[in-house]
Amino acid sequence: MWHFHRRLRPFSLISFDLDDTLYDNGPVILNAEQQLADYIARAWPEVSDMDAAAWRQLRDHVAKEDAALASDMTALRLATLIRGLRQRGVLERRARSLAEEGMEQFLVARNDVTIDPKVIALLDQLAAHYPLVAVSNGNADIHRLGLSDYFIAAYHPGHGRRGKPFTDLFVAAAEGAKLTAPDQLLHIGDHPVSDVQGALNFGAQSIWYVPEPASLSQHPTRLPEARVSELTALHALVPGSQ
């Protein structure tokens, strides 16, 4: 179902958030964190007493210390692992090496996602008419997710780029597609700040995906062009579908 705040203007590139937009990310992350904690308990005797909850608590502490990490989940998780090891006396070089091994264990599990066939069908249809890119603060990998046939590129924080709602990723996506104006980009995502505000701050158009009515309790300070409650409603973006 659609709810319009403004008429959509012509666009030539569609960007999608990944986590909690194309799939429910909560269970995926909980499983990945547990898999990582189990690996740590087996492989890192220095911190084998720390369970998944303890690592989450440390991660939150690290994020509060360095706000720049809050929108770069890969850097935040890596910094958390290094901090935990260093606190137990592991030397810096070994701590970083172990943390990178741990991150790979985490990334395997966090990309073990089953995506609804209806979502795949939507991406397939949209990709036949528009170039699609992923714009995500998380570390989901379009190749590991099996989505590389539909997305021409993916943009994540890192290498000097800040995460949403900073505009860095939207700028990179627009430059990569050689857009001549920001509003030629249409961004679709679930988060009222990272996705809606971030896209509008750049000058892009925005569609807010709100699958649960409870999500409406947190409103963006600026309204998107439109809101949808089901991703399948986006079939209407295909030329000639209306």
UniProtKB/TrEMBL annotation:
Keywords: Hydrolase, Magnesium. InterPro entries: HAD-like_hydrolase, HAD-like_sf, HAD-SF_hydro_IA, HAD_sf. It comes from the Bacteria. GO terms for molecular function: hydrolase activity. Coiled coil: none annotated. Its cofactor is Mg(2+). GO terms for biological process: riboflavin biosynthetic process. NCBIfam families: HAD-SF-IA-v1 (TIGR01549). PANTHER family: 5-AMINO-6-(5-PHOSPHO-D-RIBITYLAMINO)URACIL PHOSPHATASE YIGB, N-ACYLNEURAMINATE-9-PHOSPHATASE. This is Phosphoesterase. It comes from Aliidiomarina sanyensis.
